[in-house]
Write a structure and sequence with these properties.
The protein is α+β, with helices and mostly antiparallel strands and 116 residues long. The chain has one domain: K homology (KH) domain (GMP Synthetase, Chain A, domain 3). A hairpin with a 5-residue loop joins strand 1 and strand 2. Helix 1 crosses helix 3. The chain is flat, with a radius of gyration of 18 Å.
């Protein structure tokens, strides 16, 4: 990955994180942009979002973010100079859930080894 792409990803994460917190859509809960992955041609950006709440709240937040794409893209374009304004693709970041699941499994294995 080029330094330019890395720099644009970092800026996009900051801009989108701030912009999302200012949105007035009631569907959008407490959401944190954890990572932005931009393709080499800068045409598409996968925005990974961590959302507090149950599955329904997470789905509602993603729906709210999808409906706010034009506003978020416009803000990104105002704050980050790019030849192309990337298409935003919002996805839930399930990294925390995966880490918790792995930790639970490791604890279960440890208990089984101790004969509990």
């Amino acid at each position: 990955m080029s330094q330019r792409t890395e720099r644009v990803e970092k800026l996009a994460r900051q801009v989108l994180g701030e912009s999302i917190s200012e949105l007035k859509d009631p569907r959008i809960g407490f959401a944190t942009v954890t990572r932005v992955r931009i393709t080499a041609d800068l045409r598409h950006a996968r925005v990974l979002v961590s959302v507090l709440g149950d599955e329904a709240e997470q789905d509602a937040t993603i729906a709210g973010l999808n409906s706010a794409k034009p506003v978020l893209r416009a803000e990104l374009g105002r704050q980050v100079r790019m030849k192309y304004l990337p298409e935003l693709i919002f996805e839930l970041d399930r990294g925390t859930e995966t880490a918790e699941r792995v930790e639970r499994l490791l604890h279960e294995i440890e208990r089984e080894r101790k004969g509990e």
